[in-house]
Design goal:
5 strands; 61% helix; mainly alpha
Length: 204
């Protein structure tokens, strides 16, 4: 079964050597944006006047998306940035539990702080997702499916699997892929830009 966009985003965010997430708050926003985009592509969300609403509670076939859809239905119309920021850490943790139950992640408890941490069990899965990004950037646009385009655009917005140099090199293609991902891309980009500005201001 093809992993959800959120699961693929998580695999991208894993350090290729350690198999673990390094910047959790950063990865949480990417995972949340990917999950919301997945629901949008499935036709389970509507966007009106810059606000996002759920179209129903019916099952999606993915437990994380089902829970998110229920939360969105209960919350009512929500602006994009607030939607991505709200409960993003919980979304990340829920995804980790789901991936661990599916055998994609291994978990253990740290001896000092007694925290549960997760590590990728099969790194080939992450390599497959990275290959999906490479195809989305290099293949003719007509051969790139919407989900791969959306994942690539979101990853680029979050600078996951991309450097600033590679993003500049692929600016034209990424602009084309942004259209497939929809409004989550500029919202994610704006949230991360605001966070970086806050960190720089605090450091100065």
């Amino acid at each position: 079964m093809t992993p959800s966009l959120a699961a693929q985003a998580y695999l991208l965010a894993c350090d290729p050597d350690q198999g673990r997430i390094r910047r959790r708050s950063h990865a949480a926003l990417l995972v949340r944006a990917s999950a919301v985009t997945d629901l949008l592509l499935r036709g389970r969300l509507t966007v009106t006047g810059g606000r996002v609403s759920a179209t129903g509670h019916g099952p999606t076939g993915d437990l994380l998306l089902d829970d998110l859809l229920t939360d969105l239905a209960d919350a009512g119309p929500t602006r994009w940035r607030r939607l991505l920021r709200r409960d993003s850490a919980d979304t990340l943790h829920s995804l980790e539990l789901q991936l661990a139950a599916a055998g994609l992640l291994l978990s253990h408890v740290t001896p000092v702080l007694r925290r549960k941490v997760f590590r990728l069990d099969d790194r080939l899965r992450a390599e497959e997702v990275r290959a999906t990004l490479d195809r989305a950037l290099r293949a003719p646009l007509s051969e790139v499916d919407t989900r791969a385009a959306a994942l690539t655009a979101l990853a680029a917005a979050a600078q996951v699997g991309f450097t600033r140099r590679s993003s500049r090199r692929d600016t034209a293609r990424l602009a084309e892929l942004d259209e497939a991902a929809g409004p989550a891309v500029p919202a994610l980009r704006g949230l991360l830009r605001t966070r970086r500005a806050a960190i720089m201001a605090g450091g100065s």
